[in-house]
Amino acid sequence: MLAAAVLVGTVATAGTAQADSCYTWNRTLSQGASGADVTQLQIRVAGYPGYGAVLAIDGQYGPATEAAVKRFQSAYGLSADGVAGPDTFSKIYQLQDADCSPAHFSFGELNRCNSTWGGGNVSAATAKENAKRAMWRLEALRHALGDKPITVTSGFRSKACNDAVGGASGSRHLYGDAADLGSGPHSLCTLAKRARYHGFNGILGPGYPGHNDHTHLDHRSSRYWSASRCGI
Ligand SMILES: [Zn+2]
Which residue numbers delimit the Peptidoglycan binding-like domain (predicted)? Predict the structure, then answer.
């Protein structure tokens, strides 16, 4: 756990703006705002777009961002006004580690292939950024399912790593935005079904060829969901 989370728990002044090792917001954000701080907020609430939706990470605080902020606030027992102010940022600080990954997922977990994030279909920096964004959506999924551990069995893959496991040539694992989830404590179908609410355009699970032992989630550009044994 991160120092910030300990601090929040100890001081219990949710309204206090505080420096955070990853990122600190310096103003309250609401609909109509734009800028890099909106982008940073969107990354962290992108797991709350509503069923079948994907939140655009575009730095523009429009109605979809407001709705995602409301869902995030509701999920964590905050006043759901759709305005990102001190209480919302305090919760985010509590959830984020110094390296900007969410509290319950790590870059190492999302890359068991190499330490450079290189060799995929995008630059290393893009692959790592994509993995960070995937982790925030996974954090939302994890929270929605009762904050029980979720195991990522495969994340980013270089072309060599992807070939070694027989991955598809256009696999989203090559872009860093895919995560394969193992079963326990949740069933693979529970994971696949719930993922539909948390911003994943790609969902492949039991019943889809090669996916009876994991549920695959990714951030492809248009929706493709298939897990026939789960009714998806
Ligand atoms: Zn996969």
Answer: 34-91
pLDDT (tens, 9 = 90+) of the chain, 232 residues, equals 444 444 443 343 444 445 578 999 999 999 999 999 999 999 999 999 999 999 999 999 999 999 999 999 999 999 999 999 999 999 999 999 999 999 999 999 999 999 999 999 999 999 999 999 999 999 999 999 999 999 999 999 999 999 999 999 999 999 999 999 999 999 999 999 999 999 999 999 999 999 999 999 999 999 999 999 999 9
CB 49 within 8 A of CB 69: no
- CATH no., domain 107-230: 3.30.1380.10
| Ligand 1 centroid, distance to 130 Cα (angstroms) | 15
Tell me how far the alpha carbon of residue 99 lies from the centroid of ligand 1, in angstroms. 24
3-95: CATH architecture: Orthogonal Bundle (1.10)
Nearest to 87 by CA among 179, 20, 8: 8
pTM: 0.92
Active-site residue flag, 211? yes
Ligand 1 is an ion; residues with CB less than 5 A from it = 180, 216
- The domain spans of the chain are 3-95, 107-230
